[in-house]
Design goal:
alpha/beta; nine-stranded mixed β-sheet; 35% helix
Length: 487
């Protein structure tokens, strides 16, 4: 194996850089590198209409070549690879790079190295969030709180907004609320946030990382070099373990959040009030009121935890208590995240299509007392016994859909044999409408029909958004008395 090349962004003019992937991250990376004077080759395994349009846009810049349909071969002369999230470390491209001694940066690593360029431009600090579930909601809550404090900010990163576009843009910011995935953190060794949070840890993306230990270690990179606060989940000891393992700046504090009464250096809940015992003059004896539970939308337990984590990061940045309250009141959740669709005949219908793994589905199921659960899809290697055991007493009935529904059905048979189960063996466009009708038949007034699939959507839908849209449309048809033609 060749010795790795040492590079910095100041050295990129005239260098040959390969960008792995197009899309939201790859196109800005290619533009940024070309702007630095690099000769850029973009490789992408998919050759489709969208990719060809993006390729034409980039090649019009000059100095950029796009190679579609081959993401495995290392272009000759490559001195650096900048990768978009999702490319596995075991990809042939990266194995070839390691053999040739070519370094690999993620797009977040490139953005971090480019902050404050050109020289003298203010570089806003990053308040960074990761975790298996709740990242996007927490980052958007955090941005709302920062805005309520009068700060110029943006929610960026894995939320779907390119960090490179923001870092290199003309808009001045005081601070950035940054969502980071485990993929992005894996390729961002230089990142040093002002403060960071790991919301929770549960098995996910293990096919990419190779093991739970490797997945957790990549999540834990968010704490490396933190300046003010490492925010962890008291209910998830693994997140605190990551804080202990991190190498942080002198004076950086461990700050916990809990749904219970907080101890010193924690934020928590007392008599339906979100309180702060971390950023007060006397942590042993004082607690600062921040907001009421009713200020959190929706006030489900996992969402209150998200709000506490966002508040902790904002307080670490010096935000006053009133901004926490005002920001949480102003926040509106994204669609398909424990979203109330309608009440029909005394039954609430709730769309949590974003619950694409068992950890997220558990949080959703914990939010309601009597549930008819619509579940199923692509399991991604997950097992469902723990989820069913924890939720069995809440279940009025279950409607199963999707390719891997049998796995959930088997867990129900083992641990909740008395719960009525409808197994829908169909994947056509009317399957969700049929699931909603079956759920309505099982539900009683006061119940909640909950779409929390615990699975990915791509067996039946383009993405979880389309799955949630189909659920909402079916609920509205039910409310109006309309019966779809394909029943």
């Amino acid at each position: 194996m060749a010795s790795p090349v040492t590079l910095d962004v100041s050295d990129l003019a005239g260098r040959h850089v390969t960008v792995a992937g197009l899309g939201v991250s790859g196109v800005p990376a290619a533009r940024a590198l070309r702007g630095l004077g690099a000769t850029v080759t973009v490789v992408n395994g998919v050759d489709g209409e969208r990719q060809r349009a993006e390729a034409a846009e980039l090649e019009a810049l000059g100095g950029v070549t796009v190679r579609l349909g081959d993401g495995d071969t290392l272009p000759p002369g490559t001195e650096l690879i900048v990768t978009t999230p999702g490319w596995k470390p075991s990809s042939p491209l990266f194995l070839a790079a390691a053999e040739a001694g070519v370094p690999v940066w993620g797009d977040v690593e490139l953005a971090w190295r480019l902050r404050g360029t050109p020289a003298g431009k203010p570089a806003p600090p990053w308040l960074a969030v990761t975790g298996t579930n709740g990242k996007t909601t927490t980052v958007r809550m955090l941005a709302a709180i920062l805005e309520a404090a009068g700060l110029r900010t943006a929610a960026v990163g894995n939320i779907g907004v390119s960090l490179l576009d923001v870092v290199l843009g003309d808009e001045p910011y005081d601070v950035l609320a940054v969502e980071l995935s485990s993929y992005q953190l894996h390729w961002a060794p230089s990142l040093r946030a002002h403060s960071g949070a790991v919301l929770n840890l549960a098995p996910d993306h293990l096919d990419w990382h190779g093991s739970m230990a490797a997945y957790a270690a990549d999540k834990g990179r968010i704490y490396e070099g933190n300046q003010v606060a490492c925010v962890y989940n008291v209910a998830d000891p693994a997140t605190e373990d990551l804080v202990r393992a991190a190498d942080v700046e002198e004076g950086c504090r461990a700050i916990g959040f809990t749904l219970g009464t907080p101890g010193p250096s924690q934020l928590g809940v007392v008599e339906n009030i979100l309180v702060d015992r971390a950023f007060v003059a006397n942590r042993q004896k004082q607690a600062q009121e921040l907001a009421e539970v009713s200020d959190v939308n929706p006030p489900a337990p996992h969402n209150i935890a998200n709000a506490l984590a966002a508040a902790a990061l904002a307080r670490a940045f010096g935000v006053p208590p009133t901004a926490v309250r005002d920001g949480l009141r102003a926040f509106r959740p994204d669609p398909h995240r424990v979203e109330h669709v309608a009440d029909v005949a005394g039954v609430a219908y709730v769309d949590d299509s974003k619950a694409t793994n068992t950890h997220a589905a558990q949080a959703s199921l914990d939010s309601f007392e009597h549930i008819v659960w619509i579940a199923g899809g692509l399991a991604k290697g997950a097992t469902f016994d723990e989820l069913v055991v924890a939720s069995a007493k809440r279940l009025r009935g279950v409607v199963l859909i999707g390719a891997d529904r049998a796995l959930i059905g088997e867990a129900l048979a083992r641990h909740a044999a008395d719960v009525p189960v409808v197994d829908l063996d169909r994947t056509d466009t009317g399957a969700m409408a049929a699931a909603v009708r079956e759920a309505a038949r099982l539900a009683r007034p006061g119940d909640t029909v909950l779409l929390a699939p615990a699975c990915a959507s791509m067996d039946m839908f383009v993405n979880y958004n389309k799955r949630g849209d189909a659920f909402a449309a079916a609920v509205h048809d039910l409310a109006s008395g309309r019966v779809p033609d394909d029943q």
